[in-house]
Design a protein that fits this description.
The complex is a heterodimer of chains A (185) and B (137). With 185 residues, chain A is mainly alpha-helical. In chain A, 62% of the residues lie in helices and 0% in strands. Chain A is globular, with a radius of gyration of 19 Å. Chain B has one domain. In chain B, 66% of the residues lie in helices and 0% in strands. Chain B is built from 6 helices and no strands. In chain B, helix 5 packs antiparallel against helix 6. Chain B is globular, with a radius of gyration of 18 Å. In chain B, 53% of the residues are buried. The chains are: A mainly alpha (185), B mainly alpha (137). Chains A and B meet through helix 1, helix 2, helix 3, helix 4 and helix 6 of A and helix 1, helix 2, helix 3, helix 4 and helix 5 of B.
């Protein structure tokens, strides 16, 4: 059972994700996490401002339960199933990140420079996290799905639009890391 | 009862996202640097099995646990929304290092600044809803 405390290799994690999609399909639902962001807008009353949010949010309650589970899963995974939080990324990647100023690379789960609780008081970090989040929310809804909805569910169903969206994800991600990161950090 | 099943599925998902390090900002950065097979292995193997699962469900007309027909949402066949929306999403995914599932998992881990990412992603979704009719799809 010792393996469970180690980081899970891709050949455990990938099949687990497929299994989660299978369970949701067999429950008559689909695997797509960004839909929750729209549901939360509707619960907050966004239906008064835009028609896009006029739908019966109760039909999406199951998905909100899934993300509540995802929060609990993060707690269980980190507090009960992990002894060492460090992520062993490629030494070359660590080197690149050190040059950008991320000294916590290879030593923690998320960069302390961005996600340490004290970063809540740094203007630059708040800006980076809010812009990142904004783009994720806007882009996911514009594209009609995120990693789970397009890269897993859509591609599993061999849908061309999902392939186009995933190509878009990579154009965006590569642009950010190779061209914009040196300007931001 | 059904609610408990969804909660269980979510917990399984959260544990998987955390333990596979797919919820780690570092892994996303490394993926876009093409310096590790890890993330490609996760997505690739999930996809390989996912394709078989979906084909089996369709081929054998497998019914859901509740005896209903399983429907797949066919996406509308356009281009602009997927490519433009996809690029915008990718920019944010690389910057925040989290997509809409793992960002919730990270609250459970105790990284509270992720709440800024979640709130702004909700705002981003809201702004999309407002501009939707003016954007090319």
């Amino acid at each position: 059972m010792n393996w469970i405390f180690q980081p899970w290799p891709w050949y455990i994690a990938g099949p687990m994700i497929a299994f989660i999609m299978f369970l949701l399909l067999m429950s008559g639902k689909s695997f797509g996490m960004s839909a929750n962001l729209r549901t939360i807008c509707t619960i907050c009353g966004a239906g008064n401002k835009a028609n896009f949010f006029n739908f019966d949010w109760k039909s999406q309650k199951w998905n909100l339960v899934v993300i509540i589970g995802a929060v609990i899963g993060g707690y269980i995974g980190s507090y009960y199933l992990t002894t060492d939080m460090a992520v062993a990324i490629n030494p070359d990647t660590i080197n690149d990140l050190n040059i950008l100023g991320f000294m916590s690379a290879g030593e923690s789960y998320l960069p302390d420079e961005l996600f340490d609780n004290s970063s809540l008081f740094k203007v630059k970090n708040i800006l980076i996290l809010s812009i990142g989040g904004f783009l994720v929310g806007f882009g996911a809804r514009y594209a009609g799905g995120c990693t789970s909805g397009h890269a897993i569910s859509g591609l599993s169903d061999l849908q061309l639009p999902s392939l186009i969206a995933v190509i878009g994800f990579f154009i965006g991600g590569l642009t950010m890391i190779h061209f914009l990161f040196p300007l931001i950090f | 009862m059904r609610t408990l099943i969804y909660l269980f599925i979510g917990i399984l998902f959260g544990i998987t996202m955390f333990k596979s390090e797919a919820a780690s900002w570092f892994r996303i950065y490394e993926m876009f640097k093409f310096e590790s097979f890890h993330m490609y292995g996760i997505i690739g193997s999930a996809l390989a099995i996912g394709i078989i699962v979906v084909q089996m469900i369709k081929r054998f007309k497998i019914k859901s646990f509740y005896g209903e027909e399983i429907n797949f949402n066919t996406k509308e066949k356009t281009l602009s929304r997927y490519i433009i929306g996809g690029i915008i999403f990718g920019l944010g995914w690389a910057l925040a290092g989290a997509c809409p599932g793992p960002m919730f998992t990270l609250i459970g881990v105790g990284y509270f600044p992720i709440i800024i990412v979640i709130i702004s992603s909700i705002i981003g979704t809201f702004i999309y809803g407002l501009l939707r009719d003016k954007l090319p799809h």
